Amino acid sequence: xxxxxxxxxxxxxxxxxxxTTRSIKTQSKFAALKLALSMVDLTTLEGADSPEKVRxxxxxxxxxxxxxxxILGERLPSVAAVCVYxxxxxxxxxxxxxxxxxxxxxxxxxxxxxxxxDVRLRDVEAAVRDGADEIDMVINRGAFxxxxxxxxxxEISAIKQACGPAHLxxxxxxxxxxxxxxxxxxxxxxxxxxxxxxxxxxxTGKVSPAATMPVTLVMLEAIRDAYAGSGxxxxxxxxxxxxxxxxxxxxxxQAWHYLCMVKETLGDAWLTPxxxxxxxxxxxxxxxxxxxxxxxxxxxxxxxxxxx
Length: 308
Description:
The chain is of the alpha/beta class. It is built from twelve helices and seven strands.
């Protein structure tokens, strides 16, 4: 098992806060907003989800703003993915097949991660069979917090194998991990057991707090060390891992702060939907509103863009 480094809480929080003071030139703001839009995983994970709701969400994922060319003077990109429960993957595939928007599905007993492993594996296999390109799994926090790190690692390996061709995002549910040291240890365990192109993710969005900048920074530093072969990763083959903060990111300004943190911690290579995502559906409309404000001077109401 990797010997994860301890995290200086004061320094991590101060460093994370420093990214909120960065200034972005006006001419760069629109490009940053557009980049953030392309990184959104548009998500619906409610008990009342229906095929009609998923179809509507998928159409918005492909064309986030139908009047973009008229008002903004250009066609905006699609979002990165739509994330739904496994039973609704076939519905998403009807709309998104061939669109370039990935289909993601939560699985493995989401959001608790407490189901028997064989049930969680069947959940993953069914979602991939029905067309999921990405699987968002959640670790068993009860096992982790009890110190059963080997059990957590073996479960991640089993689920990774069940994913087959689909990419895996490992949700740590950082709001339940209690300390930054635990966040770092859980990040290292996940990174060790997943492959190039897979992700680690902060939260399910069902627990508060969800994504925070200090927690995201700790996870980005684990990714940096794995790629650079530094810290506990000395002697390991370097690997490039993606990152997804999820929950609590609601404004374009917050998205800028996260993009600054990614750039300064990992570099420009991670500033792409291939390697960085926002799990924040409510963020989408504020990105659109902010882009309209930059182009026209008017800040439209949220309802003008429908639900997200």
